[in-house]
Amino acid sequence: RHFDQIIAASNPDTFMFGFAYKRKSDLTSNQILHLLDQYTTNAASNTTLLFHLFNVRQRHQNINGVCTTLNGDKKSMNEFVNLVENTDFKNQLRHAASEPEGSDAKAVISKVLPILRAAGRNTTFGSMERRSGVSHMMALTRRYGPASTFVTIAPDDINSITGFRLTFRSVDNQTFPSMMTDEDLQSIREGADIIGEGHVKLPTSYINRARAVINNPHSSSKEYKRLIEHVFGILVNVPVSYKQRKSADYRTRGA
Question: What does pTM read for this prediction?
Answer without folding.
Answer: 0.67
